[in-house]
Design brief:
Layout: E1 2-3, H1 12-22, H2 25-29, E2 38-49, E3 59-75, E4 80-85, E5 92-95, H3 109-118, E6 128-134, H4 144-160, H5 166-181, H6 188-195, E7 200-205, E8 210-215, E9 221-227, H7 235-253, H8 268-274, H9 280-304, H10 308-324, H11 331-341, E10 346-351, E11 359-365, H12 369-384, E12 389-393, E13 400-401
Parallel strand pairs: 1-12, 4-6
Antiparallel strand pairs: 2-3, 2-13, 3-6, 3-7, 4-5, 7-8, 9-11, 9-12, 10-11
Helix pairs in contact: 3-4, 3-5, 4-5, 4-6, 5-6, 7-9, 9-10, 11-12
The structure holds alpha-D-galactopyranose.
The site of alpha-D-galactopyranose has 12 residues, from helix 6.
């Protein structure tokens, strides 16, 4: 399936999608005798450089994309909070005046975690009904979780009149994922969802949390996201294992790197000289991290110098390192990378997100889009007997209310 690109500033298509989404609110949650329904959108993200660097204090270069989570939300006359989804089974009902429920290992943990974070030190004036939905593949490395969490924070902030800042909403989203859902994720995803701008990559230095918006020439360049369709059941556990291996690498190397505050600060020469203090897995993970830091700075320089081919070359090198050193790739991702690199006009490609399945991101010249789509469709079907779905994504302005 090839999805058409959309002008990033044009919300009219989105408004129509959200109105259709809201029409299912009564059907799913009944009518509720409160005020009117409000509509919100929150994007997903792709990361172009800085793979698995955020929880190691390194730099990352993501952007929000024009696919994401839809919210139809209305206040209730009572104190109930009720969640349903057009994409997932199950839902949640709880009472704001009783103890909020514990995590249940279902999708509702994400918005419930946000409710808990927002209400940790303040009250809510009324109950709410929320119908979630959207057009972002879930579990595909496009940060559907940060999309739902940051968007929930904005929608609740608006309906409850909490007056939170963008940073407070990002913090609430992070708390929900880390402390309530239990994934030891870094800061990249909610920052990318919350702070990106169309036509730019977000430069986020995860050590001091400073950000910059770096222009990407979207008149001549395009970003494709290609979904392998592979989802790994235990991906969260494998992700937490990578976090632990990197932490072990830092603990092992820090005695040789005075002043280092995180793995990103350890010089590569220290790893070369003292790597034998580490177990094999931690040594490989550390090598990926330290070389990816260097690649990400090189990619930044290429972008600023107007050299997207050099930027793309760093992306592809990152993929081989994710396969061989960080070991988060799967054959389907490798095949998509290999097939993409055969297409003239493709500048670079790699897996995006945590890995273990999910999507690749491709940076290419705009005129190469049709050929890329045709070659990937055919090549992937030949190798794996099924279609890879390819979409051309535009950047996005971040979580917002959409006028109906
Ligand atoms: C997941 C995590 C992010 C980041 C990426 C890998 O998406 O949620 O914090 O670590 O993996 O770069």
């Amino acid at each position: 399936m090839t999805l058409p690109a959309r002008a990033p500033s044009d919300d009219s298509g989105l408004a129509a999608d959200l109105v259709r989404h809201a029409a299912r609110l009564d059907e799913r949650l009944g009518s509720a005798g409160g005020g009117g329904t409000r509509l919100f959108f929150s994007p997903g993200r792709v990361n172009l450089m800085g793979a698995h660097l955020d929880y190691n204090g390194g730099p990352v270069m993501p952007m929000a994309v024009d696919r994401g989570t839809f919210f139809a939300i209305r206040p209730r006359a009572d104190r109930l909070v009720r969640f349903a989804s057009t994409c997932e089974d199950g839902g949640l009902e709880c009472d704001l005046d009783a103890a909020l429920p514990p995590a249940s290992a279902t999708w509702t943990d994400y918005p419930l975690g946000v409710v808990r974070a927002l209400l940790a030190d303040r009250g809510a004036p009324c109950g709410v009904d929320v119908l979630f939905g959207g057009n972002l593949a879930v579990g595909a490395g496009l940060s559907s979780s940060a999309s739902i969490c940051v968007g929930t924070a904005l929608a609740l902030d608006a309906v409850w009149g909490l007056g939170t800042s963008a940073m407070e909403r990002i913090r609430a989203a992070l708390w929900a994922e880390r402390e309530f859902v239990g994934v030891q994720c870094g800061i990249m995803d909610p920052y990318a969802v919350g702070l990106s701008r169309p036509g730019h990559l977000l430069w986020l230095d995860c050590k001091d949390e400073s950000t910059e918006h770096l222009p990407l020439d979207t008149d001549t360049l395009s970003i494709a996201v290609v979904d392998t369709g592979v989802r790994r059941e235990l991906a969260q556990g494998a992700f937490n294992e990578r976090v632990a291996e990197c932490a072990r690498a830092f603990e092992g190397l820090r005695p040789f790197a005075p002043g280092a505050q995180c793995l990103r600060d350890v010089p590569l020469a220290v790893l070369e000289e003292h790597g034998d203090v580490l177990d094999d897995a931690s040594a490989e993970r550390a090598r990926h991290v330290l070389m990816e830091v260097a690649r990400t700075f090189a990619a930044r320089e290429s972008l600023l110098a107007g050299d997207p081919a050099c930027f793309g070359a760093q992306m592809s090198k990152a993929h081989w390192s994710l396969r061989d050193l960080f070991r988060v790739s799967v054959p389907e991702l490798d095949a998509l990378v290999e097939l993409s690199l055969e297409v003239p006009g493709v500048l670079g490609t790699r897996l995006t997100g945590a890995g273990f399945g999910g999507c690749t991101v491709v940076l290419l010249k705009r005129e190469a889009r049709d050929e890329l789509a045709a070659r990937l469709r055919e090549g992937y079907r030949d190798r794996f007997g099924r279609e890879a779905s390819i979409g051309f994504f535009d950047g996005d302005a971040g979580p917002r209310e959409i006028a109906s």
